[in-house]
Design a protein that fits this description.
This protein has nine helices and eleven strands. By secondary structure, the chain is an alpha/beta fold. Helix 3 crosses helix 6 and helix 6 packs across helix 7.
Length: 277
């Protein structure tokens, strides 16, 4: 975890606690090839250091593949999926990221197959508690999107939709870098007859020139010894003004104050929040 991931976690935790809700911790380790050994446990320890306790057991997507396969089977039984032999280069043209539907009439033999959702024309409207409204024709802008990859791993879009429904998630609070994923997820929810949660997409912290923190000098791991100061910074970035006498004190005291002061409406409705030099 770095400063950007702490900021997002604090915003999500505060929104749940201020509204009397539960905060669930999900480890999205569905792509096992990219998993770093010990990283999930380190994330849990870091959250606890900052006072961000969760409710219930930690959910790991790598242990839930049966649910994802059942969802795929449901869609297949409704003839809403098809096999695709396209590589990423095949699927994305030179000028457009939209999948052109190459394999809708049949995949090429002898190649690894992905599973795509058939997406039909029509506007998906999504409301966000901070960012406002988004209207997207997923078929026109994205096309048939992947639910299971050619390497056998389940796609993020399928996993989060299934998990949100299975865990009875009412509110999703995350970074605005995932805002443009939301129409696809809502489309998939409707295809599976699943409920749509409320969404709150927080502005993403970026460097002054717009670079992502994960690729900058500020992406260093959080120092537990600096937890009170770092938590104070995160609260300030979330639009709060912690009392000076609480800064540098116990994290639980600072979070207790923040729960009572959490004002979603005072967050800037922008996709990016640029940090000072």
């Amino acid at each position: 975890m770095h400063a950007g991931s702490l900021y997002a976690a604090v915003g999500s935790w505060l929104d749940a606690r201020a509204r009397g809700g539960e905060w669930l911790l999900r480890i999205e380790d569905i792509d096992r090839a990219r998993e770093i050994p010990g990283a999930a446990d380190e994330i849990c320890r870091t959250l606890e250091t900052f006072g961000l306790t969760w409710d219930g057991v930690v959910t790991r997507q790598s242990e839930r593949t049966g649910l994802y396969e059942a969802a795929l089977a449901t869609l297949a039984s409704r003839e809403l999926t098809f096999a695709c032999s396209c590589s990423r280069r095949d699927a994305r043209g030179e000028e457009s990221p939209r999948y052109p539907g190459t394999c809708r009439t049949g995949a090429r033999p002898g190649r690894a197959l992905a599973i795509r959702l058939k997406v039909e024309p029509g506007t998906v409207a999504v409301e966000d508690r901070l960012q406002g409204s988004m209207h997207q024709d997923v078929a026109s802008d994205i096309g048939d999107f992947v639910l299971k990859r050619r390497d056998g791993y389940y796609a993020y879009q399928l996993a989060v939709v299934v998990d949100d429904a299975d865990q009875n998630i009412t509110d999703v609070v995350r970074g605005a870098d995932l805002w443009d994923n939301t129409p696809r997820q809502v489309y998939l929810q409707r295809a599976l007859n699943l409920p749509t949660p409320r969404y709150l997409h927080l502005p993403v912290l970026v460097e002054p020139a717009g670079e992502k923190l994960a690729k900058s000098r500020r992406s260093i791991p959080l120092d537990p010894e600096q937890a009170p100061a770092l938590l104070g910074n995160a609260l300030t970035q979330l639009g709060l003004a912690p009392p000076p006498d609480l800064l540098g004190g116990p994290v639980h005291t600072l979070l207790g104050w923040a729960v009572t002061a959490w004002p979603t409406a005072e967050l800037p409705p922008v996709p990016m929040l640029r940090l000072a030099q």
